[in-house]
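Notes from the 1:1 (GR / supervisor)

We went over the backlog. Supervisor wanted to see one worked example end to end before approving the batch request, so GR pasted a single chain during the call. The sequence is below; no edits were made to it. Supervisor asked that the structure be written out right there so they could see what the output format looks like.
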Amino acid sequence: VKKFATEIETQFKQASAEKEKGFRLIKKVLSLAAENFTIQLSMADYYRIKEEFQKLNDIYHNADILDPKAGILFYVKGAVTLQKYGSSKKDLSKLHEAKSLLKKAVDQKPDMLKGRVKLAIVYGKLKEYENAYHETEKILKDNPDHEVAKIMRENLLYQLEQDKKQAEANRQIIEALKKEKEDSKTEQEKKIE
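Structure output shown during the call:
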């Protein structure tokens, strides 16, 4: 069964342009090699792409049983959560969940480039720009030509600069309001005298 599963995994990888064909092959052997973690993850990736989240949850359950400490599993769960809830402005708890999952993934597999990219995206969506910037730096340290990380870093630098300018403007407004209040208080004291 393992040899057969390995052959199917190889065929699936070779059929990346024909994901549907690969999916059908994997589905056929899934009952024979349900304990194969790689096949479970291939199925999870398919369901993620198709946005069939209930079926994806079933795969998660099986994968948790097979390898509960698999960094790739945390990555897939985090990526799906980001995909499903990443544009939601209302429910930030799901983005925090994605952040937690992706942090676990990169903690367990520090060289997981996709995990670091997704984690930087989540940080950005949560307006944790410094954390996002640090993730892009980690990516570029080992992969200096990573175009997505370069673009993200530039955007984050711009955002951090804008935040500094806004913080300075807010500080000046607060100082002006305090001064106005003090001047008003001083004027009232003069009127009383």
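Supervisor's comment: Residues 13 and 135 are 29 Å apart (CA to CA).
Batch request approved.
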